[in-house]
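REVIEWER CHECKLIST
Item 1: Sequence provided? yes
Item 2: Single chain? yes
Item 3: Sequence as submitted:
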Amino acid sequence: MRTCIVCEKQMDDGFLHEPSGLTFCEEKCVNEKYSREDQEDMIPDELFWTKWHDEAEESRC
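Item 4: Structure as written out by the authors:
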């Protein structure tokens, strides 16, 4: 399980800023860390929505 770096909410899915590894639960939290201009300057797929999976759960299947 991941934690939003802004509001500290636990989450199974959310935004990932791949270069830094920072995770966000919703767009509101992304906007608190990165301005609209910062987001527009990011390369494609630098910041994206994803669903994480638990590798420990997968190994039990």
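Item 5: Key structural point noted by reviewer: The chain has a mean pLDDT of 90.
Item 6: Recommendation: ____
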